[in-house]
Amino acid sequence: MNAAILDKKTVLKMEGITKYFPGTLAVDNVNFMCNKGEVHGLVGENGAGKSTLMKILGGIYLPDKGKIIINNREKRFHNYAEARKFGIGIVYQELSLLPDLSVAENIFMGIWAKKGRIIDWNEIIKKSKEVLAEIDIKLDPEEIVGPLPVALKQMVEIAKVLTQNPEIIIFDEPTASLSSQEVSRLFNIIKKLKENNKAIIFISHRLKEVLNIADVITVMKDGKVVITEKKDYFTEDKLILSMVGREFSQIFPNKATSIDNKIAFSFHGFSEKYRSEVKLSVFRGEVLGIGGLRGQGQIELLQSIFGLGKETKVKVMLSDRLYTIKNPFQAIKSGITLIPEDRNTEGVFLILSVLQNIAASTVDERKNFGLIDRRREKEEVTSITNKLSIKIISLNQIANSLSGGNLQKLVLGKWLLTNPLVMVMLEPTKGVDIGTKQQIYKLIRELAEKGVAVIIHTSEMIELIGMCDRVLVMNKGFITADLKGKEITEEKIMKASISYVNILSEDKE
Fold first, then answer.
1. What is the pTM of this model?
2. Which of 73, 205, 363, 456 has fewest C-beta within 10 Å?
């Protein structure tokens, strides 16, 4: 570790941390430290050991070897409650809020203010207002959490952590579900915490954000620390090279050299919310991107292709046949699949095995006289896990034990077994590392080359530009641009994102 980094008061040292799981050395003799008033970025591919290291710090896992030293005192935490008492706070990517309870109840869950044996709700409401004001969030403490947008739920999660007045705050993929404006708000909060002398550990696969917010960056790979240096040492290419051994320019596969004029898939729907009519087509061999600022009808549109969402009068054309899609069952029978935005709640059965998850959508295809052909099922699932390089101990491993990138591959594998005609992907690389992103990009291109109609919605501008042969931009439910080839630039996408002209208002079919 560069001695120049040790220029502030050290609050945390982790020395020689090692953690084994059955068949896996997850963390291998890692040294890690953090100073007060510093943001320490922690990056690496899925499975690099970042989350395991932080779970050891948070008391969720016990290390097999090594020491945790906080303010020059060695600690050994057996659970998160113990870690929290000694100043550790964790803001997870997957929120831990209870949706049916109020903001105040979530913030003070388990640490109720009391008058004698009775919970003092007035005090809880008062303190909730104070902690929300501390992060500049105007929110009614008595409001129910469930209906809140993701960004506000994230702020409630942060407020929940701050009630313990932690010295060390871990942000684990906090921006994965946030828009650029919401990310800016979060960064302002982090900067304020830094000014208050907190030690911040910031984990993210969005490398530009790490370079923006971090003072020091540690890269992990295969359970080990590769490098720790001040931020100024790194460029995005240097970070990627440290993580995966490849430069950024090598991440995206080549785009299609020519596009077949034959339409593989077309959609026609009407949005009651925006009072807008939307038509789109995907040509054979092309990857179609759906861009625009967050919350402009993209999700509703693409969910409607799968029989969800609030689009009405939905009609699709596949293989020269017209279908009316009213529900997901009809969509799947027609050859349409959907990679959802939130894989944990909408894409994966977390308590079921890898085999059960991947086989779920094609169970009926392997039935003989009502009995499932288990041998065939195992062969097909094994083939998919090998194709996608899903890191597992066995097919019986519970899905909840997998990393975010491997969970995303699980969702992909489930739908690949159906041999889809249309693959709709909402944020397909959300919360996954560069290496896994590259695998997904390659798979997307292979599907398009095989004639599958691939439609992507991503908030990552670089993905729209790097992956898509054509991009439709949406604003307030309308398609405001149809960009092809060299027209797909950040400037043109952003210009169309704030335009109100519906370029597809006339029937172009």
1. 0.61
2. 73
**Looking at 250, 271, 287, which one is the last position of a domain?**
250
Give the model's pLDDT for residue 7: 46
E strand or H helix at 32: strand 24-35
Indicate if the pLDDT at residue 177 is higher than 70. Answer: no
**Beta strand residue intervals within 97-223, DSSP E:** 114-115, 118-119, 168-172, 199-203, 216-221
Q: Residue 84's pLDDT is what?
A: 86
Q: What is the DSSP string of 229-249?
A: EEGGG--HHHHHHHHHS--GG
Q: Which amino acid, 203?
A: I
Same domain, 269 and 225: no
The CATH number that applies at residue 289 is 3.40.50.300
Give pLDDT, residue 123: 84
Please name every residue paired with 33 in a beta bridge, in sequence order, or none if there are none: 13
E-strand stretches of 127-251: 168-172, 199-203, 216-221, 224-230
Domain for residue 22, yes or no?
Answer: yes
Task: For 77-107, write each residue's pLDDT tens digit.
Answer: 998 888 988 899 988 766 678 888 899 888 8
Domain annotation covers residue 386 = no
Domain-terminating residue out of 215, 250, 285:
250
Query: Does some domain include residue 19?
Result: yes
The strand pairing partners of 221, in sequence order, are 224
Residue 317 to residue 319: CA distance in whole angstroms: 7
Query: What is the rounded average pLDDT of the residues 389-408?
Result: 89
| Cα(283)–Cα(264) distance, integer angstroms | 5
- Cα 372 → chain centroid: 34
Q: What's the number of domains the chain is made of?
A: 2
- Parent domain of 231: 3-250
